[in-house]
């Protein structure tokens, strides 16, 4: 079974949204996969996803109220096969923690699933308005659809 971790900065907006979108699709397609998300920072450890992230996904029929923020640790390199980062800062920060080439090879940009090799970032919606979350949803849904095709 594939084990996938999604990583952003706070683990309350982008990575729990990615986690929830992929979890929902995997459930619907009966795909057995282990999923989790984490933040590079400890700012919001223990918190539920941002209410705006929860509301955006609730409107699509996806419930992420059960998720709680945690910080990425080096042990995650052992626990997961793929570590999908949301932006360039997350990517660089996680790569710095990798202990060898095998661990480095697990670190990817999530949007590369949709736009291979382009290293596109999911913009941080935390300090913006509600429309930022809808934009993030569309980007994550596109990448999730490609990931689900690969996992099938
Ligand atoms: P996330 O968004 O990385 O998508 O969870 C953020 C959440 C919180 C903060 C920054 C980004 N913050 O600075 O507290």
Features:
single chain; 152 residues; alpha/beta; four-stranded parallel beta sheet; 6 helices; binds 4-nitrophenyl phosphate
Bound molecules: 4-nitrophenyl phosphate
Order of helices and strands: EHEHHEHHEH
Mind describing the biggest β-sheet? 4 strands, parallel
Percentage of residues in helical conformation: 40-55%
Average residue-wise pLDDT: 98
Note the gap between the termini.
12 Å
The unreliable regions are none
Shape: globular
Number of strands: 4
| Range of strand content | 5-15%
**Backbone structural class:** alpha/beta
What topology, given as strand order, has the largest sheet?
2-1-3-4
Tally of separate helices: 6
Q: Using only CA atoms, what is the Rg? A: 14 Å
Please characterize this protein's 3D structure.
The chain contains six helices and four strands. The model has no long low-confidence stretch (mean pLDDT 98). A four-stranded parallel β-sheet has the order 2-1-3-4, sandwiched between helices. Helix content is 42%, strand content 14%. The longest helix has 22 residues, at 130-151. It is of the alpha/beta class. It has helices at 14-28, 51-58, 76-79, 88-97, 101-105, 130-151, and strands spanning 2-8, 33-39, 82-85, 107-109. Residues 8-14, 43-44, 124, 126 line the site of 4-nitrophenyl phosphate (4NP).
């Amino acid at each position: 079974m594939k084990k996938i971790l999604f990583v952003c900065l706070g683990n309350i907006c982008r990575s729990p949204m990615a986690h929830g979108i992929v979890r929902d699709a995997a459930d619907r397609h009966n795909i057995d996969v282990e999923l989790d998300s984490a933040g590079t920072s400890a700012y919001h450890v223990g918190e539920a996803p941002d209410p705006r992230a929860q509301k955006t996904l609730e409107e699509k029929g996806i419930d992420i109220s059960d998720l709680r923020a945690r910080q990425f640790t080096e042990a995650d390199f052992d626990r997961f096969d793929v570590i999908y980062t949301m932006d360039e800062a997350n990517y660089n920060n996680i790569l710095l923690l990798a202990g060898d080439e095998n661990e480095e090879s697990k670190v990817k940009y999530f949007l590369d699933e949709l736009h291979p090799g382009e290293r596109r970032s999911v913009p941080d919606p935390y300090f913006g308005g509600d429309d930022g979350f809808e934009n993030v949803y569309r980007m994550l849904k596109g990448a999730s659809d490609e990931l689900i095709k690969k996992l099938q």
